[in-house]
Amino acid sequence: MVELDQRKLPLEKYKVYAVQNAYYIADHVRAVGKAIGRADPIHYAFIFGRLIQLVPGYGTPVFAFPKIAKAVGVTDKDFDEIMRNPSLVMPGTQAYVDFLYKMYDTGTPGIAASSYLACPWTYTERELGGLDCAKRVAEGLDKYGVSDELIQAYTDEEGFSEWHMRLLRITKDIVNAEANVPEIREKMRDAFRRNSEFELGFWEQAYRYEGK
Fold first, then answer.
1. DSSP single-letter state for residue 127
2. Average per-residue pLDDT in the chain?
3. pTM over 0.85
4. Rounded distance, CA 152 to CA 142, Å?
5. Which residues fall within 8 angstroms of residue 51, CB to CB, at 6 or more apart?
6. What span, in angstroms and rounded, lies between the C-alpha atoms of 39 and 68?
């Protein structure tokens, strides 16, 4: 993120991140299905289902992430291959989604939500406790010819859009609903810590990647 802020990040490092992120997004949706299938009370099935519905469909015209990735050279073939070839999935990416599957499959709704919260939260504006990741990523890519229109679209969608704010708010509500139970609160705290570690590692692996 520092090199993005300074407009110094090598383009190949972002492209590695983008392809891995596509895999993460797809598998996270599948992982949420675990929470839906074992929701108790049952109304949490509808809440977790709503979280999936809030995210614009991957690959649809309204989803800015693949657009900004393609603007800097990532291709449809790159996205397709990582979905079909397990050897292209980096160890940190697979470990991250495996962690999500485990938490959604075994934890309470609050623990499951805590294992994901760091991801959307870091993309939001600093005034809400986030790190402005969406804005910083988009603006950091402007040196590679990304249009001002696309930079603004990605920033708005990933950091400030209504669907993103609702997703973050619902996730926090799930967590807060169980925060008064000491044992669960401690497990949620641990899940959030682990989530934060995986989130950091996810970015770092792309930065460290030197190619085959």
1. G
2. 87
3. yes
4. 11
5. 32, 167, 170, 171
6. 35
